[in-house]
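Friendly challenge for the regulars: who can give me the structure tokens for this chain first? No prize, just bragging rights.
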Amino acid sequence: MSQIHLGNFHPSEVRRLQLQNLLAHPMFPIERSKQESPLNLKAILTGSAVDISGTFNTEIVMNLMAGSMWWMGPEHWTMFYAANLVRGLFFTAMGGYFSARTAGQDYMKHALVTGSISTGISIVLAIAYYLNMANSGQVDSSIFILFGVFANLPAALLGGLFYASTAKTQNALPPN
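First reply, four minutes later:
Bragging rights claimed.
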């Protein structure tokens, strides 16, 4: 290990140089590019915007369709709630995908944060649903709401994983 002359340095600079010298030792192989990077706010906001805008814009369309289904029986409402669940999880996965894609690194960390935001919003909306609609006599959609809350995070991670796998595949291809 090489020695560092610590002559006229400030004590905090001395500690930093000593630590840097220690970490440069072969026993501690650290690559600078592999260190923790901060979260990319643009990536998180992009993923969350895809998730939220896609979910709420299609929610408008689905509710317009529901207005024409008011006379149908409970079996049709069950299919309607199932379609809403699939639609919401699709856009959450897309949010995780675009968050990972925009980040350029630490794909799963960004997808996790996007999924956490989506889960938080889902919890707030589920509480609002139960406070406002539970006693209205509508078809019970509790199982779909609970599944949606618990499946948000895995859906976003699945989107991030999909991008990570395609990014690795694209990087593995030889250039043209």
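Residues 5 and 23 are 17 Å apart (CA to CA). The chain has two domains: 1-35, 37-172. Your move, everyone else.
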